[in-house]
Write a structure and sequence with these properties.
two-stranded antiparallel sheet; 5 strands; 3-stranded antiparallel sheet; GIY_YIG_cat; alpha+beta
């Protein structure tokens, strides 16, 4: 049931809709799925689910304070340091990853993040399913669906090695460049 709600949702939401106030995304725990009208890589299909995420994230000794609303909104307007989806998309789109601040954080810089936000506004669409313990669904979804943009728990995916390499190369280049803004 949850997989179908993400792979064939009744509705997909755009950045403008999600970022409007009041927005449609509930402040509740759950799983969200990202579809793209244009694929971020020629090696990937457009028009279907390519990535799932959860909110809140459940760790061994705590649960994050995130919910569907805060997490989905962050993916649309945050930065690569706080969003693995944004990091992946920016790397696939060829944006330059840079060390920022003290040099420990990596983002695409002000201009790159703005370019990525614009690309997502044009091509990314999201759906979600509320669930009290989304971490209980995450492994099953990643195992049973073809989600090429998910890396965690997804070594079986045919795009995993390529995406891992693309992200590693972007991080290596960023380490070689001076700290940006």
């Amino acid at each position: 049931m949850h997989a179908a709600a993400l792979t064939s949702p009744a509705r997909l939401w755009s950045a403008d809709e999600v970022l409007a106030r009041p927005g449609p995304v509930p402040a509740a725990p759950g799983v969200y799925g990202w579809h793209f009208t244009k694929a971020p890589s020629p090696d990937l299909p457009a028009g279907r689910l390519l990535y799932v995420g959860i909110a809140p994230r459940h760790m061994a000794n705590r649960t994050s304070a995130q919910n569907l609303r805060t997490r989905v909104r962050y993916h649309f307007r945050g930065n690569a340091e706080g969003s693995t989806l944004r990091l992946t998309l920016g790397c696939l789109l060829g944006l330059e990853l840079r060390r920022v601040g003290s040099g420990k954080r990596m983002t695409f810089g002000k201009d790159g993040e703005a370019e990525l936000s614009q690309w997502m506004a044009e091509h990314a669409r999201v759906c979600w399913v509320e669930h009290p313990e989304p971490w209980a669904l995450e492994s099953d979804l990643i195992t049973s669906l073809d989600l090429p943009l998910n890396l965690d728990q997804n070594r079986h995916n045919g795009f995993h090695a390529r995406l891992t390499e693309i992200r590693a190369q972007a991080r290596q280049r960023a380490r070689e460049l001076p700290i940006g803004v």
